[in-house]
Amino acid sequence: MNKKTLIAAAVAMLGTAPAWASSATVYGLTLDLDNHFSAGGAWRMQSRDMRLVGIGNGGSAYSTNNDDGDLAFDRGDMVSAAAKLTSDLTISRGAFGLFVRGSYLYNQKLRDYDFFNINNYYATASSSTLGVGLTPTGRASVAPVSEYHAKNRAVGNFVGNDADLLDAYLYGSVDIGRQSLTFKLGRQVLNWGESTLVQNGINSLLAFDANQLRVPGYEISEVITPQNMIWLSTSLSSRVAVEGFYEFDWQRTQPDAPGTFWSTNDFAGVGGTRAFITFGLPPENTPNTTIPRGADHKPGNSGQFGGKISIQIPALNDMDLSFYAMQYHSRLPLVSGVSKSSYASTSETGLYFLEYPKDIQLYGVSFNTTLGDWSAQGEYSYKPNQPLQVDDVELLLAGVGLPSQVTPPPAAPLGSALGNKYIRGYRRHEVSQVDTSFTRLFGPMRYLGSDQLLFVAEAAADYVHDLPPTSELRYDAPGTYTPGSASVAALVSSATLPIFGRSVPQQQRGYATAFSWGYKLIARLTYNNLIGPVRIEPALRFDHDVHGVTPTPMGNFVEGRKMANVSVTGYYQQAWSLQLGYSNYFGGGQANLLSDRDYLEAALKYVF
């Protein structure tokens, strides 16, 4: 990565203090130890919007599958109180070495928190054969209180008391003729492409833990999950270089755990055990309204590899032009299911599970160069077989024997999907993504009194080449909770009206679209020695999803959705830093599931 890319990459780590490493030499080996300690908290600053809460939970949304995180914290509540230590150890001799990174997190707020509502669970079953009991409020439930405790423990352990081995690889360089071959072997992060702030392009190889992203004072190295692989790089000439990798294991992206403050899915992450199918009308765990979770369908470890060739073009301001080809397994989950046994059987005889489709191909090209005082980067990627999530309502309808767009063609009789049949929740499509960004470091700004200004602008777009019309097949997006067919909505309402006293409306808009785009802006000022040896860096970030809705699981853009973050970080003696920040989510209507979760955070960091 050359100096042009380094400027943009540094933006992802705004507020990161320089590191001091401890070094020693033992028996000819050089040991370098670098530690990052942080402690901080975050607080909810906005009242709950009941339009985002399911009807059965006291709101007006037609789903109770997305609101656990919203219900778990009130305005003013602390939503995180974390301390974290991340240590990097390098042992080297000459051109060879070992790099190991480990991290430990303790979140006092979340370790033993009650993320879920105990009034949705029963203590003693009224019938051991039916598995149904009465909750503390006297209503029927299919979920025992042991499930409640198990869910809380799973989430609390995952986000509140977590030790991780991150990177752990051998590296080195050997001469081959006039060229050298550089290698890394072991757990490592391979971040190809030129996107800085947008995912699902050439950087689709990366797996993330969204829960680490929510830790006040996080480092980007703690968010990306390393994977076991061998990586090789060599030069073919002074202006041409090649790289290649082969992965030995597969790692998934972890969504926000259900019940945590930023979570918007209650069944897919750690602690998710049931999906609720009656359009949000009854309270959670009401009999015959839930589908239990089955085992995840993982893709295996083999069959992931790729290559890259980079060319430097002096005539174009030393432009770096790179070409990519790779095959990998999905890091992002897709939801599929098994239908219930029969019309007479309960919904609990069905299943939902997460799938991670195999053998996704990606081809791409990227560039970075300079245009005057600006650094310019961009990339284009094409995936001929990207899995996209079918609207989950269509899966639900098929699973309980109602008319659905995923019912076997050409005109399957009603209930043809019943009998514990597999219902695939995704289809593969051709997807392109384009991304471009511009970065500039300005010198002293007299009218702002600053020593430096960093500015970054990045825009990206997604296009599904062969997305069918919604009349043929609807694809999932945030906030699409009810049937897209008027006749099916009427059929469902004929059943819900007598039982729950409410009809279910037709979902007329909000589905994934073929084209979507948005942009992100970052500005950061630097004031050196503003207060004695203290350096102050205020920063502003603004994200805007302008048009269209990117299909799940990519989810890059939701039309109208916006986010603004303002922060200020102070640095003292190159080792201490204190960061304060406020984030505001707005726009996008009810498709923006975080629009009522503004938060304030503070973090103290020390590097040694």
From TrEMBL:
Top-level taxon: Bacteria
InterPro entries in the cross-refs: DUF1302
Signal peptide (from-to): 1-21
Keyword terms of this UniProt record: Signal
Name of the protein described by the UniProt record: DUF1302 domain-containing protein
Native species: Solimonas aquatica
